[in-house]
Each structure stands twice: as structure tokens, then as C-alpha cells.
Amino acid sequence: MKYFFQFKKDPFDVYRIILPEEICLFSDFIEDITTETEAEEYIDDIENVLNGSYEDFEIQLNATSVLIKKDETEIEHFFRNEEPYIQKIETKEFKELLLVWKNKIKESVEN
Length: 111
Known about the structure:
4-stranded antiparallel sheet
């Protein structure tokens, strides 16, 4: 994993993922994923882009949209009051973050 991350619980006992400033918008997308099944669906979509089955793929959630391309994934945040509104990450790194989040969801359900 190229990027440092950590998990913290908020005052409502919900896990949050803390990411570096250059990719911090991705935390809002990732935190909207609440089940292992949903995470697996998005990981499969990423894999379909990486293996060439799809040229690209867009996922829109509550406050964010990601456009997944083979080399790079771009996120746009719809409701931020200040820049940045758009950030990018390598698609393979984005997939790794989703795998980590999926495991955290599993862990939290088991406890």
C-alpha cells in the first residue's frame, strides 16, 4: 500500500478511515460503503476496468462520484465548501483501500 491510512471511531462508535490530504476525499466515498457485499461489488467493478472488460466505470454515492479508469481513479465531491473538489489516486491503490475497508467492515460485524 502506497498511502498511509488509519481507522478511528467517531463519537457515534462508527469507524472512519483517515487518509492523507492528497487523497482525503476518497474517505467520504469509502465510508459510504456499509456492507461487505457492496464493497465486493465495487471491487469487482474495479477489477473489470483493470482487466479490460470495461473501459471505465462510474459509481455515484451520496456525496461523491468516482470515475474508475485503468491507471487512475478520479473522485468528485459534490458538497464540499472549499477546494479540493476533485482528487485522483492510482486505480490499484484505490482497489487496495476498498479491500482494507471490506475487511474492516467484516471485523466490525464480527465484534
